[in-house]
Amino acid sequence: MGGTPPVVAKKTTQTPKAIIHHKFGTKACYKIEEVQGTTQDGCPGLAIPQKGPCLFRCSLQLPGFSVVSEAFKRKKDAEQSAAEMALQKLGSDPAASDSMVQEPQDELISRLSYLFTDEFLSSLHPLGGHFRASLRRDGNLYGLIPVSLFAVCDAKLGNTCKSINPVVESNPLLAIPLVMKAAASVSGSVATSEGQLWMGRKNPYPPEIIQSSISSQLNSPESIGIEAIHIPYTLEKNVDSLTLNVSSTGYYLDAIGQKLGLTDASKILVSRTVGKASSEVRLYFSAPEWYLVDLLSDLNVKEVTSEEGSFNARASYFSGHAIYGNAILASIGYTWKSTDLFHEDISLQSYYRLLISKIPSGVYKLSREAILTAKLPMAFTTRTNWKGTFPKDLLCSFCRQHCLSEPVFSVVSTPSKQSSEVLGSCKRLKVAQSSAEETEHGNGAGVASHGNGSVGSESTFMCEIKISSKLQDLIIEYSPKDSYRKHSDAIQNSSLRVLLWLNTYFEELDMPLEKLASTADAFNIHICPEKFVKTFTLCPFIHNLHQRNETQRDRLLDSKSINQSYIMPGHGLYSLNIEGPDSGTSPSNGSLAYINYAAYLVADGEHMKEPLESKDEFEFEIGVGAVVPHLEAVVTQMSVGQSACFNVDLPPQELILTAAGDSVKIFSLLSSKVCFLEYSIALLRVTEPLEDRMEQALFSPPLSKQRVGFALQYIKESSASTLIDFGCGSGSLLDSLLDFPTSLAKIVGVDISQKSLTRAAKILHSKLSRNLHAGEPSLGVKSAILYEGSITYYDPRLYGCDIGTCLEVIEHMEEDEARLFGDVVLSYFCPKVLIVSTPNYEYNVILQRSNPSNQEEDPDQASQSQACKFRNHDHKFEWTREEFNRWASNLAGKHNYSVELSGVGGSADVEPGFASQIAVFRRRGIPLETDNNHPTPVDLIRQYEVVWEWNRSDR
Hints:
By secondary structure, the protein is α+β, with helices and mostly antiparallel strands. It contains 32 helices and 33 strands.
């Protein structure tokens, strides 16, 4: 057999910690201390205690002295820093020391020698567990373990093998000849078995060390039965379960070898972990004969391919490298946490869960624990409405499952055009030139920024994504067209686009290369079709997601048990029956539906009904494809309180077996009977779409921007120098006002939510500090302050400002509290001008489109004929125009103010008026409080807490 081309090994640079270990060994003691990071998060003056990031500090104790590192985000960085400080104290410069450079082969030999020391035997190291277990073996197997375990169980040794031969990254089995070669160099301490793949210590361990190492395991049960999965190499045979009987006095690899039909367990090869990296789920298989011949003859194994003999496609798909012959999937092994053998049962359901976790939609289904119901949504609307794992995390998980490099997210930002965007027409934002770019790897580490502009709160963002193989061959490159106002939204939406395209591929794995490329183009994705198909070459052999059991469906439709009158075309849905009175509350696009459901596998005509999946409460957003189509089609016909029962075609078999508790029984049923799925659901409640989403869908610019423009107009007209925003929330109004030149010198915000005020403080501090040296419009603002407190109480420090605003706030209060606020603000705060806005309830019929026929009715009746829902579930009330006008007029007359009624969104002359109604109160004359003739009741006075303060004079 031919050998692999020679690979030039790279010299490795030893880390400071490695040098310390080389010098001091076990005498070097590292202790990690967890410390709290900085709490201000770049926002000086913030009075609310903030929980900073968790940091780590390392104390390194060496003979004669100790050092303590600075605080770092990662433990290993703190350890390396402490080691570097120690080297400097010893007079050794790590950056210039020749000792830092070591040949990888020498490093491999050094590491292998250490693994056979007395010290290592008692360590809490996975490989140490194998050494201890081997000391309980009998005869000539005493103290021997398979060579394949060394690179798998010891990360340092495995990484050194990769530096010698980078191909080990994609084929871990190529580490075995490297380890065997290193063992030959230390033959004085390490023994290998001739003609076999065993390895052990040449000289016996001292008896006292053996006794102390294995005594803790003497009380283990005599035998342990562990459920595992047998994966035949031929696809014609089904995967099935088996039981490993592991003796407490034996070695678990011997039990696995027996199941694989091996008399020599040294031939067992072990894969990298399958699924989560922290798990002990691995594949165990026997080395093919041709592989052993090459290995044991000249230690030069060729790179294996899928064309050799008994190639196991399913096992290879899980492991990411070639596996031959039958394989066993088991969760068993030694860990860093204990000297005891770790083990968990792996059922057929577990196998199928691992299988669908390699599909984008499958990862999402698992995150929601709704295999037969959930579906990867077509759109990312808001973080609140998205349920399950976020798209970015789903994409990272997908890449790990397929042994790809972590995706690289490059976020490009562009400052938006401020005045035209706020006051002019607002179409979907496009980014032409980037002013700043951030690159972030999928694991969240190593964020780099570059560009010649600053990224401010008014920037828009686009996110590019690149996905490469472990050997850094570019496989997928996504170039976005749309931009988003939030950095995180850009990342999540781009990630979702890539996932949706990958899902398209997995639903049609046999699509021609031309179609593959064209579908990618439709998603703004560039691929090299040949490299992409090579990366996922095993997928068509394993997944058949696009195939549906059409024969079963045809037979079902011919069956007398199917009610033909209740068939819904296009959904594979029939026998629909909805029960219960119509409550009048039904879900619509954008709303959140809450259901309970149960799904059953039913054998047609056999009266056999097996439960598969159920949820007491399941939440999803309507209109984004977050559930399987037939279920959403039914839910949109229901009203709250109703229940429904319906039948659907079978989904792919692997989804059914993933959901099934008893996979063996369900598989037998699927194989022998004509089956369908039966769903039983009840609509529990519905949460309406978020108010701002409804408004943005109908208004350009959005109502929030129009309200800012309205307030800005009055600020300019009144030449106001002080402004108080009552119910400022996260500071969106104050932040927006800083983008325009005004006469304002002092701005104040008041809110009851600490969380919102903290966000406001960070936003305002960032913009004010940045604009201070940039000649921006907010340069005239000399001070800003945020208070925590209820706006139904009066703080004398805020008396008599030039202008007060309260935009879309009062509807979040109880109605009597809103009326109290009106009295308090005009009677005691006494602003010269007060602007109050609140939703016009009559406009909801348009926003919600709850009864389109109303638009054809008489305009005078249109606002009364439909009882609409509130715009937001958090609203305590919403006033009609008449109610708002009456409140505003009575309030103005009571407190010596004039009032002007207006609004934004819509027109006063066209029914049903403005979408957001506004009252502008103007003070007449001098407030009575200046003569002390109008004292404030003590129970209405309360001093607010200062949360954050900014003064230009302090900068």
